[in-house]
Design goal:
- This protein is mainly alpha-helical.
- The chain has one domain (2-57).
- Helices cover 88% and strands 0% of the residues.
- It has 2 helices and no strands.
- It has helices at 2-25, 31-57.
- It comes from Maritimibacter fusiformis.
- This is CTP synthetase.
- The chain crosses the membrane at residues 33-53.
- Keywords: Membrane, Transmembrane, Transmembrane helix.
Length: 58
């Protein structure tokens, strides 16, 4: 469980940050697209983290 949470925090912030940068680069400079990008990053990170943690556990 600790591995899953640790990976989620790393993957979530990484994906959220990447999507925020992508949104800003695409010209979306208002608040809502940036929030949507951050939330999408954390939502996408959940299944990705689960798959990675399952592979690491063996």
């Amino acid at each position: 469980m600790f591995l899953l949470l640790a990976l989620y925090f790393v993957a979530g912030t990484t994906l959220a940050g990447s999507l925020i940068v992508a949104a800003l680069t695409a010209g979306f400079t208002t608040t809502m697209p940036i929030i949507y990008a951050a939330v999408a990053g954390f939502v996408i990170a959940a299944p990705v983290t689960w798959m990675v943690a399952r592979k690491l556990r063996g």
